Amino acid sequence: MKSRHVIWLAGGLLLASLFAGVGAPLLAHALGGAAQPGTVQVNGTGTVDVTPDTATLSFGVTTEAKTAAAALADNSDAAAKVIAVLKKAGIAAKDIQTQFVSLSPRYTDRGDDIIGYTASNSVSAVVRNLQSAGAVIDAGVAAGANQVSGPSLSPSGENALYREALKGAVADARAKAEALGQAGHFSIGQIVSVVEQSSTPVPLAGGREAAPSGPPIEPGTQQVQATVTVTFQINAP
Fold first, then answer.
1. Which of 155, 121, 235 shows the shortest CA–CA distance to 188?
2. Cα(32)–Cα(191) distance, rounded to whole angstroms?
3. How do residues 94-150 score in pLDDT, each as one tens digit?
4. pLDDT in tens, 65-89
5. How many CB atoms lie within 10 A of CB 109?
6. Where do the H-state alpha helices sit in the chain?
7. In a 10 Å sphere around its CB, with 0-12 CB exposed, 13-18 middle and 19+ buried, how is residue 208 labelled?
8. Cα–Cα distance between 19 and 35 in angstroms, integer?
9. How far apart are CA 61 and CA 174, in angstroms?
10. Cα angle vertex 111, ends 110, 114, to 5°?
11. In 3-state terms, the chain is what percent helix, strand and coil (to 5)?
């Protein structure tokens, strides 16, 4: 008898939950999860176009010697010269950072005997005057850097630009929700929740030559992008 009461209770709760959703629209658009009854959930994207004005470069020095101590000592001297030249070229000390230091043995072709050692040191440098990036590369190579990579271009004040893109993303989400409301004959109410999605600057075509000397650096244009998932309350018609 007790088990029968439990079954009747479960059936009653199921019917109640079904009727509770009657008349409440349930919409989903570009969703990662399901919208709740009485809400509509949409993705919004906001973008801000900007010309990069900062370049991050990597300068590496690799040296070889018969002994590990000699290889490391020679490499340290060479790396110190590169760092000194970068500072002289106008790179602030806070913008120069060691990426890695390595030391490894070199073997014969048969691999059964050590014939010497190779040492490497790499530093990154943030060039905040993009027009001088080419000259900085020339200076680093002239000082002894035999490995150069980059640049990684980015705009200054990127956090503020991203916040502007976030505002645009929320506005875009509301516009999409209102379009769905017009099609579904319902109105959009207040925001129930907002979920921020991660995003990174997207390079775009175009730009101008930024370096008067040394390797040409084309800044081009980047698009700072933000994406959000917004859930809106649906107002009754």
1. 235
2. 18
3. 999 999 999 999 999 888 899 999 999 999 999 999 889 999 999 999 999 999 999
4. 999 999 999 999 999 999 999 999 9
5. 7
6. 2-20, 68-88, 133-142, 158-184
7. exposed
8. 18
9. 53
10. 125
11. 35, 40, 25
